[in-house]
Structures are given as structure tokens and as C-alpha cells.
Write a structure and sequence with these properties.
Catalytic activity (chains A, B): (2S)-2-acetolactate + H(+) = (R)-acetoin + CO2
CATH class of chain A: Alpha Beta
Order of helices and strands of chain A: EHEHEEEEEEEHEHEEEEEHH
Shape of chain A: globular
CATH topology of chain A: 60s Ribosomal Protein L30, Chain: A
CATH superfamily of chain A: Hypothetical protein, similar to alpha- acetolactate decarboxylase, domain 2
Family (chains A, B): Belongs to the alpha-acetolactate decarboxylase family.
Largest sheet of chain A: 7 strands, mixed
Pfam families (chains A, B): AAL_decarboxy
EC number (chains A, B): 4.1.1.5
Strand order of the largest sheet of chain A: 6-5-4-3-8-1-15
Distance between the termini of chain A: 29 Å
Pathway (chains A, B): Polyol metabolism; (R,R)-butane-2,3-diol biosynthesis; (R,R)-butane-2,3-diol from pyruvate: step 2/3
Oligomer: homodimer
Structural class of chain A: alpha+beta
Chain lengths: 238, 238
């Protein structure tokens, strides 16, 4: 795949419905990109992909490096790109909302396309959650959300990997900014609820206009009733 | 592109908003498929692509063969595929709704994926409409719809080219069945409102799970406020 094209496996509405038994093998996913986020079978933890590695960040706080050569892990949902930043900048922000504003200024006229971005440096705080996995088949994301583990890391060095998706593609992707975090030591991380830089951190980002959406082909997905639960997505992925 | 992958330029919500000044050159579009439908600059008529030709079916009843080698025509919206049917059948139907039922039986468990299909033969009747083009910049599709030209052809030989899109992708594509018609003589056609086969006609179709969505990159698209107008889409594309 060319640089800065989005490869997405499945749609968020499917994840919301709890379609998590099967997915794309990570060995195949990494052929489409080196920068991304997603989840694992039965939504067990949060996925982050950077620097040619894929990590599973679990709710017990442990982090597993995924074997992408011949491992058996699969992604019921994932977004990746071959990341080549077109914009780099030193930026500072005191909240996830503040970060959004900074990015909107860095990328004017992009609200109807995707962005991919990465932020490296020292963070005053990063609040994360990790999903602990489905307890029964097709448990919905709204249910998992109720018992998610949250953590706040302070004075921590690490990387944020994220995507911004257009509002009108809510349900396909997660509208707005969706980002995962991992420390430099690769020992802590999760889905970012809030974040605050310590002074300036290094931002890099690019616009994605070409989207490759792979719809699953298995009974679980094919039989699912997929409806847009915009409120639910904001709740569990916001 | 591989067989039976969907290539789509822009999204239906953009078309609804009247974003029609620019688009993908047809010379580029045809590289992605040989079977499809779409529209033209300022929504002037209906596009149908089959048998390695692209036709513009205009509201005055004329049909133009598009020069896809070095022509200047562009598609503000189009869907194409390299069509290789996996299912062929002799089918009969007495309405567009009846055709939908036949296809649902031919393709069980596909409601969350796309279908592409083609139907050739003798039709007792085919009711079509053709959009007459925007009268001012950004005129919305709902407005164009009010003065669309409709026609009913009877005892006519021709081809239907269509796509079925998942309900949850309404706004990206046209949810449900969306089909265009052209006669064997390539002298009449349009966007199909209703159709009735004369006895049995030849059906061929395939499932599409890989979707390549190219989002436009021009000021007109980038500045558009894109919202899902599901009711409007059903009205103008149903």
C-alpha cells in the first residue's frame, strides 16, 4: 500500500455490536501499515502499532508484544497506515480537547478526510482506559465500557498514535480523534481519555484521502444487525 | 485492482450537498473497473459503465459515449468494480422490489457487504429518471430531484447495472439497491425507478467485501458540511 492511505478492517458499528470472535490475523494487518490502533479477539485490551511493532495493552496493566510473523492473534477491528508525516511541529496542549484544536489549526480544510498522527515526548499526564475483554460471546462494547480499567500516568515519556475521522463517517470509524498511548519503555499504555503535554512535544501527522475498507466475511459479521449508535460510540470511544 | 473489489469516488452525502463542480476524471476512473454507475459534472445525467464503455445518459434523452482516453469529463461520484460474477441465474421479477427479493435469495448472509450485479435481457418495462444537472453551484440533489425527467420504456432489450450497499453505509453509498439501465442499442436509459422482466432474464452478480473509498481533495469538498440525510437519499436515489 502507498504511504498515507488508510487500511481499515471492519467497522466500528460491528465492534459496538460485540462482533469479536474472529478478525484479521495480525500477520496480514501489518502488511498494510506500520502505524495504527485497534483491538484483539473478544476486545481483550487495546492495540497500538508503531516502530514496526504491535502491542497488546491489557486491562491488568501488562503489555504483550504481538508475534506478527506467524502468531494467531486477530483484530476484529483495526486501522493502520504506512505513515509518512507531511506536517511536523512542536506543540503543547493541556487536554485532549486542546490537542484537537492544535491539530485543527495544523490541518485546515480537512474535516471531510482522515488524519493520522503521532506525538512523542514527555507528558505531564495521560489518562487511559483498557477494555478487559468480552465475558460472553457478542457482549456489546457499551457493556464492556462499564467495567473498563482506567489509569492515569504522570510525568511519563511515550508516544500517542491516533487517527481523526470525519464526522459523517461515524459508525464506520470513530468520528473525531481516537488515540492510543504507550510509554517509551513499552510497559504502560491504553486508549487515551485525556492527555497533557509537559511543555512542547513532537507532533507529526498527515492527511489520508484514500481509504481501504475491508469488510469481514464470516457468519458472525454477516449475521450481525449493524446500526449506528453514535451516542454509544462517543461514550465508549470518546 | 483485483476482481470484485469496489472502487468508490466520494460519498453520496457529498452529492446530496450539491458538490458537483469537480470530480475524478473518467480516464482515471476506468482504471479501477469496467462495471459501474455514477454521475457527471453538475450532476448532468446518469452514468453507466459496461462492456468497456462509459455512457452519459442525459435528461433530453440523448446518450453520449464518454472518451475515457483523454476526455475531460469528471465524476463527482462514481462506483465501479472489475466485475467477475460468482453467481449467474435465470430470473424473473415484476418490480424493482421483486428483483431485490430475488437477489436476497441468491445471496444469503450478505446484508453487511456490497453486491454488484448485471441483468441482461428483454424487459416488459423499465421506468427511469435522469437528472438534468445543477442550475447553480451547489444546488442540492433534493432540488434537482424535483425536476427530474422520467421515462418508461416498454418491451425493451437492455442491461441493468447495479450495486447493493449495506444499510449501515447509507450516506457513504446508497443503502439498498441502486441501478442504472441502458438499452442494447445504447439509445435510451437512466436511473432505474422500477423494472419488470419479460419472462426470464440473465442475472449475474458477485459479493464485494473490499472497498476502496477515494475521498476528494478540493476546496469544494473540503468545505462542505456533510450530514446524513437518509430520508433525502431514499427520495432521490431510491
Amino acid at each position: 500500500m502507498a504511504y498515507n492511505e488508510l487500511y481499515q478492517y471492519s467497522v466500528v458499528s460491528s465492534l459496538m455490536e460485540g462482533i469479536g470472535e474472529t478478525g484479521l490475523p495480525y500477520s496480514q494487518l501489518v502488511k498494510h501499515g506500520d502505524h495504527g490502533l485497534g483491538t484483539f479477539r473478544r476486545m481483550a485490551g487495546e492495540m497500538i502499532c508503531l516502530d514496526n511493532e504491535v502491542y497488546q495493552m491489557k486491562s491488568d496493566g501488562s503489555i504483550v508484544t504481538i508475534d506478527t510473523s506467524n502468531g494467531t492473534d486477530v483484530a476484529p477491528f483495526a486501522m493502520v497506515t504506512r505513515f509518512q508525516p507531511s506536517v511536523t511541529a512542536k506543540i503543547a496542549f493541556d487536554s485532549k480537547h486542546g490537542l484537537s484544536d492544535v491539530m485543527s489549526n495544523l490541518f485546515p480544510k480537512t474535516k471531510n478526510r482522515y488524519l493520522s498522527f503521532r506525538i512523542d515526548g514527555l507528558f505531564q499526564s495521560v489518562a487511559v482506559r483498557t477494555a478487559d475483554g468480552q465475558r460472553y460471546e457478542h457482549e456489546k462494547l457499551r457493556e464492556l465500557h462499564k467495567r473498563q480499567t482506567t489509569n492515569e500516568f504522570t510525568n511519563v515519556r511515550g508516544s500517542l498514535i491516533g487517527f481523526r475521522s470525519p464526522e459523517f463517517l461515524q459508525g464506520v470509524s470513530v468520528a473525531g480523534d481516537h488515540l492510543h498511548f504507550i510509554t517509551d519503555e513499552r510497559d504502560r499504555g491504553g486508549h487515551v481519555l485525556d492527555c497533557k503535554s509537559e511543555g512542547e512535544v513532537q507532533f507529526s501527522g498527515s492527511i489520508l484521502s484514500a481509504v481501504h475498507l475491508q469488510l469481514p466475511d464470516d457468519d458472525e459479521y454477516n449475521e450481525a444487525e449493524l446500526n449506528l449508535d453514535a451516542d454509544g460510540i462517543r461514550k465508549v470511544e470518546g
